[in-house]
Each structure stands twice: as structure tokens, then as C-alpha cells.
Amino acid sequence: MVDLVALGETMIQLNALTSGPLRYVNYFEKHAAGTESNVAVGMVRMGHSAGWISKLGDDELGRYIHGFLRGEGIDVSRVQFDGGAPMGLYFVQRDYPIPGKSVIYYYRRDSAASRLTPEDVDEEYIASAKVFHTTGVTLALSETCRKSVDKAIEVAHGSGVQVSFDTNIRLKLWAPDEARRVMLPYLGRADILFTDIQDSEILLGDADPASAAKKYLDMGVDTAVVKMGERGAYVATRDGGASMGGAFKVPVVDVTGAGDAFDAAFLSCRMRGLDLDRSLEFANAAGALCVTVRGDVEAIPSVGDVKRFLDGGSHVLR
Ligand code: KDG
């Protein structure tokens, strides 16, 4: 029995240590990253159990990711090594061409994770979870990844497991039309849908959070969460609930992973029975804390970190 099972690719992130075009950057920092495993890490930090289904290259980088996530307390027993394919990796270029923003360069085509097949999805494991989580990134990787997601969702639906899905459209992985065509049939199969205003514009032609959320609910979603970046997030539920929560201002070091920290905190709050207002506040705080440190997972906060931040609590430093 595990609280959350995540399915998707974990990659090596090579994060530039200096700003500017990558051709002039000489030093990079290695991190473990990937939206679904970030959510699994976030859940563990919130005090839950989490497992992760994926494929890794059977090489030093694959072993690094395996050990890293195991060290974070993720159950990696359903992760396979594939000797015939490399790890996916990506570079983060900072502050160029837009100051304060990062640009991502992926090297992930035909990665080990893109070779995930439905046979790699353990039905009993999914059925033993409270929540199954995946994202649009996995749908973009390969046909066999889509089939693996199909199987996991089918098993989840047949076993009373909640399906959590984040649209996470990455335009470097596919064109907007293709993302819309592939993803639309998945939206109504989610119990909890996370998205943002940019993705809603692509998927529905509607960037208004309340009206986009209503459309998602009409498709069959129970809880639709529309993230709005610096403006916070909006949530609506099928039973008529709705809430809007503002974002918190913090010094921004690296925004990647913030949406995943948000998802994990929101899922955790709902599992613990918190109401929509408190869940959004908690999730917005978790997303804010995540951007204050380089890397995706390093600053995903624990439940104690978020509580301290919200209470304005101080630390004894010396
Ligand atoms: O949410 C953070 C992710 O975007 C990052 O870790 C890389 O999974 C990733 C992706 O495919 O963009």
C-alpha cells in the first residue's frame, strides 16, 4: 500500500552555474529532475509514501538517479534498467535571452524512459495506491509511454485509485496542435487535474482560470486546479467548491520544479482532508519555497518547512 504512485521519466539536469548563453558556460551542476518523480519526492516530504515507475539507462547516470530517489525515500522497486538506451538529460541556461528566466535544452529522444511499455506497469502496484500521478510530458515521449499511461489509468479507475494528471505541456517536445490532439482525451479521465493558463489556452482556447476550470469539470474532472504563476492559482470542484489563492513573493533563483512542489502539496492537503482554501495556500507556499534554490527537488519543502513559512516562523541560525 503506497499513497502515491508516479509514472514518468527522471532525467539528469545539468544546471548552468553562470548566466548567459550555454556556449560560454563552463561549469554545470548535476541534479536529478523530472516532473513526476519531483511530485513523488514532494509527497514524501509531505509525510506520505510514494513509489515511482520508470526506466533508467543501465549506466552511471541511471544508477545515480536510482540511488538519489531511493535516498529520498521513494520506492524504486518498480523501476527497470534498460541496457540498450541512454538516460535522458537536459541543460538549463540561465538569464539568457530573458533576464530572470531559464531556457531548457533537452537531450532525451529515445531515452530509456521513452521505452517504457505497458508490460512495465505493475497492475497490483497501481491498484494498491491512493493516487496515481502522471503528466503530459510522459504522453509526449512515445507511443509506448502513452499505452503505459492508458494501462495505469485503466487499472486506477478499476480499483478506486484517484488519477492525478498535470497537463505540463512542453512546447520543445511537441507542437501545440499535437499536444491538444493527444491530450484532450486524457483530461476527463483525471480525478484531479492540474494545469495552467498557458496550457488551457492551448487545450481549450481559454486562458480564463474560472471558465477553463468549468470546462474541465464538464469533461468529467472532479477537481480542476489552474495555476497562474505569479498570480497564484484557482481551483474548482464538481460539487460546486471554488477558491482562488495568491502567490507568495520570494527571491527567485530557479523556477523549475515549482509546479511539481505545488502539485504534491495540494495532493497531500486533500488527502489529509484540508479544505480548498487551505490546500491552495499550502500549495502556493510550497511552490514559492521551491524556487529559492537551484535544482528541482532540492528545495521542494517538507510539511514543516511550509508551516514555518506560513506562520512567519524564524530559525535559530547560530
Ligand atoms: O517540472 C520540472 C520539469 O519540467 C523538469 O524536471 C524536466 O520533467 C521535465 C520536463 O520534461 O520538462
Q: How would you characterize this protein structure?
A:
- The chain has helices at 35-45, 60-71, 123-127, 136-141, 143-158, 176-187, 197-204, 209-219, 258-271, 276-290, 303-311, and strands spanning 2-7, 11-16, 28-33, 50-57, 79-82, 89-94, 102-107, 129-135, 162-166, 192-196, 223-227, 233-237, 242-245.
- It is of the alpha/beta class and 318 residues long.
- It has a 9-stranded mixed sheet, sandwiched between helices. A 4-stranded mixed sheet has the order 3-2-6-7.
- Helix 9 (258-271) packs antiparallel against helix 10 and helix 10 (276-290) crosses helix 11 (303-311).
- It starts with a strand and ends in a 7-residue tail after the last helix.
- The mean pLDDT is 96.
- The protein binds 2-keto-3-deoxygluconate.
Descriptive labels:
318 residues; alpha/beta; 11 helices; globular; binds 2-keto-3-deoxygluconate
- Average pLDDT, to the nearest integer? 96
Share of residues in helices: 25-40%
By secondary-structure content and strand pairing, the structural class works out as alpha/beta
User: In total, how many beta strands?
Assistant: 13
Order of helices and strands: EEEHEHEEEHEHHEHEHHEEEHHH
Poorly predicted sequence stretches spanning 5 or more consecutive residues:
none
Into which percentage range does the β-strand content fall?
A: 15-25%
Ligand inventory: 2-keto-3-deoxygluconate
Gyration radius (Cα, Å) is: 18 Å
DSSP summary: helix tally: 11
Q: What's the main sheet like?
A: 9 strands, mixed
The largest beta-sheet arranges its strands as 5-4-1-8-9-10-11-12-13
Shape: globular
Distance from first to last alpha carbon: 41 Å
